[in-house]
Amino acid sequence: MSQRIYFRVHGTVQGVNFRYFTQKKATEAGITGWVEGEAQGSPDALKQFLKDIDRGPTHARVVQLDKEDREVKEGEAKFEVRA
After folding, report:
1. In the predicted model, what is the mean pLDDT of the chain?
2. Which residues form the Acylphosphatase-like domain (predicted)?
């Protein structure tokens, strides 16, 4: 069963490779969606994904992570970095 969330990360996340870190963690967990936007996958995969992005890459400093549930989307195949 899939679940979809909207997420937004606050803190030092610009210029520290955060978007690509997030994409890597999503892909490893089998999550689809897009960076600083939405993620979809199993509840367990999303739980781990949120833990990973709350830590962020080495030079990031996450101070807040917001999330809210969204409607599941069919046919999404990957997790994208959008500008």
Report:
1. 94
2. 4-83
